Structure formats: structure tokens, C-alpha cells
Amino acid sequence: MNPNLTYVLVVGVLFAAGVTLLLERSLTRVLMGVILLGNGANLLLLTGGRAGGPPIVGTTAEEEMSDPLPQAMVLTAIVITLGMTAFLLALAYRSWHLNGHDEVQDDVEDRRIMELADRDEGPGTADTDTGDGDSTGAPARDRTASVAGDAGRAG
Question: Structure pTM?
Fold first, then answer.
């Protein structure tokens, strides 16, 4: 069975719009992106099934039956999309009540860790050592023993 070109284009547009909306900072737009992606996935799954009669033994010839697996997968995808929608709605509602808007802000701790990583990876700090010693030249097993010895003296 060849899929209809209209269905393929609609699935592509739904996925493209959904991914675009997922990349936004507003939780309302993220919610709309999840809904569009869910609908695109449902349509994609339905285009994979074969059209035919009901898959009930005795009412339809076996070669004319439709495949029930895509229908079952679409029902599962609907439930998953509904759960994600409810969760994102709760997040957007809570964010609106706490902040007066639903935009996701940058996490201060993530920004601090990124700045520390940038500082550590600055020019001239590339380690050209083979990994079996530290910058003082001591082998790794000596450092481990000294750390273990220091820990024993601290208690």
C-alpha cells in the first residue's frame, strides 16, 4: 500500500510545527508543540495500517482484514499525549500563579556550572599528560595512597 501524499505532507507539517513550538520558552507553546507532535504521530501510525474489513475471524476473509496493531498503537499514543498535556497544563498553571507568566527561565545553577566548565577549558589548560600522573609528576597510585592516608588521619 502506498501512502497518500496528502497524509505524508500533513504529518511533515505537524511534526515541523510541533518541534518548532517545543523549542520555545513559553509553556503554552511547548504544550501546543506536544499536542501537534502527538497528532502527527497518530496520523503517521494510521497511515502505516492496511485498509480493509474488520479484523474479526469469520466476518472478513483473512487477506481483506485491516491490521489492528496500528489502531492499538494510536490508542496508546492518544493516552500518552493526554498525560503529557495534563502534566504541561499543570506546570503552566503553577508557573502562572507563582510568576505571573509561563516562560521557563534559565536555571542559575546550570549557568554557574557552564561558566565553571568554560573557565576550566580555557586556553593553556589542555592536559597533554598520559593520564598516569598529576601535574607534579607523581604516579596515580601514589596520589591514591596519599589521599587514603590523609583521610585516615582526619578522623
Answer: 0.63
**All cell numbers assigned to 73:** 498503537
Output the CA torsion 52→56→57→62 (10° steps): 10
- Encode the chain (155 residues) as per-residue pLDDT tens digits: 567 888 889 999 999 999 999 998 888 899 999 999 999 999 988 887 777 888 888 888 888 888 888 888 899 999 999 999 999 999 889 888 888 888 887 778 888 888 888 888 766 555 555 555 555 554 544 444 444 444 444 44
Give the burial class of 44: count Cβ atoms within 10 A of its Cβ; 0-12 exposed, 13-18 middle, 19 or more buried. buried
Cα Dmax for the chain: 83
